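Design review, sub-item: ligand-bound model
Attendees: FS, YL, KQ
YL presented the inputs for the adenosine-3',5'-cyclic-monophosphate complex:
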Amino acid sequence: MSQRSIDDLSSFAPFRSRLFRILQYLVLAVGLVAMTAITVPELPPVLRTWLVVCLWCCLGFFVAELVIKSWSKSHSNTASAYLLSASGIIDLMAVLPIPVVLFIGVPADTAWLLASLWLLKLTAFVPGLSLLGRVIAVEARPLASVLVIFLIVLLFAGVALYTLERAGQPERFGSLPLSLWWAVSTLTTTGYGDSVPQTFLGRMIAGIVMICGLGVFGLWTGILATGFAAEHRRRDFIQNWDLVTRVPFLHNLAPPAIIELTHMLRRLDLAERTVVVRRGRPGDCMYFIASGEVEVKLDPQSIRLSRGAFFGEMALLEGGPRTATVVTTLPSTLLILDVSNFRVFMAHHPDLAREVEMEAARRGQANKDVLPEKQRGESRLEEYRTDKEV
Ligand code: CMP
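KQ shared the predicted structure:
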């Protein structure tokens, strides 16, 4: 069973509440401050005792969390799956090691340092971590290639400096490990300055190693950055694909057209009562409703559009301003098609273009029929001033 389904299936509701999360942050903060403070030798004994009590309370909190989670999951027979899942292992690591090492006689000051494992609980709230894991997995080969270059330069530099400098500075370059230490600090551009080559050749090599260091880390950064961007695009594509297939108007599209459109669309999640387009403003995109509902503010009667409908096409087709204000009535997910992509897509798919044009013409005619000429020019924006705007 996947991590997600385990969590969804049986997570005890209070553990997902905001209040619990705040409480968990608080306990974590208190625990880590106490752990840090008890390492200070000058601490008054009374304060130390109180801090240790604090640490026991924090540990008790995490034990209670583990027990309640396991108990709540035992109803759906997923307790063992939870304990073997990543979050279960982290919860276990937060509670087991400290009592175990105290039991086997490790001094309390050292044992409580294991409270630093509590920090792992924060990983549950950092979505970027799974993304980073995936990027590293996908980019493993190029990252490994750069690592190999790093190791080659490291070893060559270490050997060269050992050969050149050991006679003059035996205490700094007298062994290969010492020279390698210099090479690591130089290659990572840390340059502590504790070991500096004295010979001319040694300094030349040092310069080359520093430049190589910049190159290696530049490459690493570049690989990770493009990996992150590609992964984001991939996730967006999957999400957009799912949303596009939910729009009935696009159901007749062939798969290549859906792929093209999926690349072009941007997702927009909106709360209710958010103004999406305002009457009279220029239009630079159209919208498909993937979920939720919007209201097109018209006189005498507004019109509601729900999942599958589109809007914002009239300004693009006529090159004029928006003909109506559109406001969400429910939390909604919209797919945005920018004007440039709109033109490209309509040129590639004339059938769809005709349908959009016919609907725009029908809407334009309906508006003309119901709206007296003199009202059409008047601004009706005031009534929406309290709404949020995209
Ligand atoms: P646009 O003029 O770009 O911005 C406002 C949008 O409201 C408009 O495009 C249409 O998509 C939509 N709209 C305008 N009139 C109607 C109508 N009568 N029925 C449904 N939608 C409309």
